[in-house]
Amino acid sequence: MPHHDPPLASSYLRQIAEQVASMGGDVDAWLARSGLRAAQLEDARLSLSFPLFRQLVLDALALTQEPALGLLIGERMRAHTHGILGYAAMHSATLRQALEVLERYFMLRTSMVGIAIEVQGATLRVSLYERVPLGDIARPVLEGVLLAFKNVLDFIARDSAPCQLVAFQCAPSDVGLAQSLFQCEVRYAQDWSGMLLPAAALDLPLKMGDPASFEQALQLCQRELEKLVTPYSTAARVRRLMLEQRTAFPSLALTARLLHVTPRTLHRRLLAEHSSYQQILDEVRRMLACEYLRVGQLSVQEISYALGYTDIANFRRAFKRWEGVPPSAWLTAKRALKD
Prior knowledge:
H-NOX domain, 2 domains, 5 strands
């Protein structure tokens, strides 16, 4: 699937470089393979394509020979590593407020992964979902992102929200290391990625809460988000609008209106990027269909309606075109792999 947003903030690339260096790797040679120089990592405006970032991660894995590289990089990251978003989380009044900010503005730090937060009885479920298929770099990215996320929560909540369980859809890198870093049970080859926390901690006051600092940080986050959307491709902006809706996708006409252009102009701009409204809609539907099936909370019929299909047969046909098998066979194959 083509992807046009920069995959992550440049400060994270510096963390990867520092980890590679600490393990004896030649950072200059590692960067040079992708046409980069160490000095560029200091530039906050550095923008990488997803294929370039993927190659950097694969090269780092090959260079260090460390399958748990994502965990080691995630462990390096603390609240201050996350810029204005980390600052907003630190000064939130409650864990609920912090999580809402992180969920809404997470794309300021990375466009590869999104966060979904859901209260299930006495448990708070924080799920990671791939905004783009991560493929062969899923494990290091998901392990690194989730551990970095947990480090932020531990810092702001202190001991009031201990992690109860961590789950990953990918195969394990080093279960012992993961459990020592997350300080709880870690399960791999699951049908979701994320963590479980006690819901009772959601509304406890946080010691570092500061309404004035929080409000200032929130305004900066909103301005950064508005700047982020503007310079990127039309296809990326259309995709983001669809992902923000998650269901009831905006029509071509409404999408054009939200982007302040005419439908004809939108069509022309997408065509110039070798894309189309229908192609992007199919990509988003495919990604969400697989995510909904993995989570297992909706029936195939409910997923069909959630993705805007009025006829379940049309959804089944579309899914078979995307994945080569019907939804039920795809799910059976995934469960067999897990077992």
